[in-house]
Design a protein that fits this description.
single chain, 101 residues, mainly beta, four-stranded antiparallel beta sheet, three-stranded antiparallel beta sheet, 0% helix
Length: 101
């Protein structure tokens, strides 16, 4: 068993480049979601998995507090992003959903 880290760009929220698709080992379980200091452009998530499993594509989307989640999406977790020099409006909380369609 191993823990792996993945990230989804905030641009995936509005369709800028990153469509939120990640290849994860089959059966991977998401155990944490967080923002990391110095990287205000991504939400990161960690999975526990077996490395000998085939890779499968999974689709994720980031939704800010107060905005509706897309249809056919399951809540995964939330990440608090504290104030930085590039975020002039204060704190954000981003919510990671996995697309099921």
């Amino acid at each position: 068993m191993i823990v792996l880290k993945y990230s989804v760009a905030l641009g995936s929220l509005i369709g800028l480049g990153d469509n939120g698709t990640r290849s994860l080992p089959e059966g991977a379980v998401i155990v944490d979601v967080a923002c990391q200091p110095g990287d205000e452009n991504h939400v990161h998530f960690w999975v526990v998995c077996e490395m000998n499993q085939p890779m499968v594509d999974r689709r994720f989307v980031i939704v800010p507090t107060g905005m509706p989640a897309p249809a056919n999406a399951e809540y995964v977790g939330s990440a608090h992003q504290p104030y930085t020099d590039t975020l002039e409006v204060g704190e954000f909380v981003w919510h990671l959903f996995e697309r099921t369609d």
